[in-house]
Amino acid sequence: MDCMINIRFRAIVSGIIFSCTGSVMASTLLDAYHQSLNHDSVYMQAQAEYMSQKEATKSAWSAFFPRISASGDLLSNHSDNDIDSFAVNGTQTVFNWSAIKRVSKAQAQVRQAVLDLSVAQQDLMQRVVTRYLDVVRTHEIDILTKEQVDAVKQQMEAVKERYRLHHATVTDLDRIKASYDLYRSQLVTADIQLHNAQQQLIELTGAPIKHIPRFKSSFKLLHPQPNQLSLWLKRVTQQNLSIQSASEGVAVAKAALGESRGGYFPVIGAKASYYPTDPEYVDEHFLYELTVDYDGFQGGAVSANVASAMALYQKSQAERQGVYNNAMMLANSAFSSMVNGISQIKAEKRAVESNASALKNTSEGYNAGNQTLLDVIDQQTNLYNANIQYVAGRVQYLSALSLLEQQAGTLKPNTLEHLQGWFR
After folding, report:
1. How far apart are the C-alpha atoms of 73 and 75, rounded to whole Å?
2. Phi-psi region at 83: left, alpha or beta (left = phi > 0; alpha = psi -120 to 50)
3. Residues 208, 166: contact at Cβ < 8 Å?
4. Helix extents (H) in 206-271
5. Residue 386 and residue 353 in contact, taking contact as beta carbons nearer than 8 Å
6. In the beta sheet, which residues pair with residue 70?
7. What is the rounded average pLDDT of the residues 34-47?
8. Strand, coil or helix: what is 122?
9. Which residues partner with 286 through β-bridges?
10. Is the confidence at residue 385, as pLDDT, over 60?
11. Which DSSP letter does residue 89 get?
């Protein structure tokens, strides 16, 4: 376990050191993650908590080490006789049930702190992925909306010309102008959403994205590997860091319960003292003692403490079950989103292509007098919505991929590199 703790902490420290050499402005997911290691307050709190908890074991073991104290006196009386004396005392705990359990509790706390730091690291990765993808999504929508505004503006100019030649009606002119105004307002909304998404990412990284990527036109859709839900759920059970941390929380509570029961047992110790009684320190004395301290009845305090610790132990078990249930639910949902997302993305891509073709044919029909302007406007809206759905589908697929890895306990920086392959 100590080896595992050291490996995990070295990996975390390596990530922090690497982040110090990163670029000032993020451009990739990995850049954003490395920058967030030194800027995100949640992760930095987890680091501080680990540094605090790792000292708990040393503090707990201190009860079993000898304690040495010394005292001295210097007395001067009216007969001009100076008398000085000193004594050295040493105590050693032989048996202390509460102290034994405090050591067990401290060891579990350290293990939990290491796991919590790893949980915070994976949580940071997932938050970076989520916010980075939100920047990509809002950027794509912003570009689509700008293209839509330009297309409708160009069409509005054509309708104005047709109206001047008496080939279009006032109603046509009003409709195209209303459509243009609508998309202009949507462009303002898209700009605001893009700005907000960027600010949310900056909250993690401390710096804006140097270059906002766009989705590649071609990409390879992959099923989860392995492509069996049961195997992923098995990974969740065995490797999910939040579940492991919650299990250590149960161990902490169990040790705390044992510590509270220490009030039922005596505390046995050894004591040795050295003190000279002769003014010239010729007569030396050594005193050895075996002490037994038993305070089994403290007005019901011991029983009350045990009952309270038992309740907290049961609470920790319930919390672990809740973490387990949540992890299984999220893994199930992410797996389903990935599998269904493949068909969804393919369908959304076909919808974009078919709506683009339909818009072209409708526009040609309008120019030939076979279609109305309203038909063209409706088809433009259909294509715009299809493109937005296509963007959302790809974002959802990539989010599900990283979430599935997180719940399985396998989310790592190379996962972010894999996700980056979708962008240009």
Report:
1. 6
2. beta
3. no
4. 229-239, 241-260
5. no
6. 88
7. 95
8. helix
9. 274
10. yes
11. E
CB distance 141 to 373 below 8 Å: no
Cα distances (Å, whole numbers) of residue 67 to 93, 286, 330: 9, 17, 52
State the Cα angle at 92 between 89 and 97, rounded to 5°: 145
Question: 387 vs 25, which has greater pLDDT?
Answer: 387
The whole-angstrom separation of Cα 176 and Cα 183 is 11
Q: Cα 116 from chain centroid?
A: 10
In 37-81, which ranges are E strands?
A: 67-76
DSSP 83: E
What are the residue ranges spanned by the domains of the chain? Answer: 2-73+84-420
For residue 355, which amino acid is it?
N
pLDDT in tens, 232-282: 999 999 999 999 999 999 999 999 999 888 888 888 888 887 777 655 555
- The SS3 call for residue 206 is coil
Q: In what order do the strands lie in the sheet with 267-276?
A: 67-76, 82-95, 267-276, 284-293
Round the CA-based radius of gyration of the chain to a whole number and report it. Answer: 35
Inter-residue contact 416 to 184 (CB < 8 Å): no
Two tokens at 252? Answer: 């902490």
What pLDDT was estimated at residue 367?
Answer: 87
For residue 363, give every residue at least 6 positions away whose Cβ sits within 8 Å of its Cβ, in sequence order, or none: 371, 376, 379
2-73+84-420 CATH fold: Outer membrane efflux proteins (OEP) (1.20.1600)
Q: How far apart are CA 208 and CA 30, in angstroms?
A: 14
* Rounded mean pLDDT, 20-31: 68
**Nearest C-alpha neighbor of 144 from the set 420, 384, 326, 409:** 384
SS3 of 251, please? Answer: helix
Q: How many CB atoms lie within 10 A of CB 28?
A: 19
User: If you write DSSP's letter for every residue of 337-387 in order, what string do you get?
Assistant: HHHHHHHHHHHHHHHHHHHHHHHHHHHHHHHTTSS-HHHHHHHHHHHHHHH
Q: Which residue has the tokens 């979430």?
A: 403
Specify the residue for token string 């859709």. Answer: 221
Report the alpha-carbon distance of residue 414 to residue 384 in Å, rounded: 34
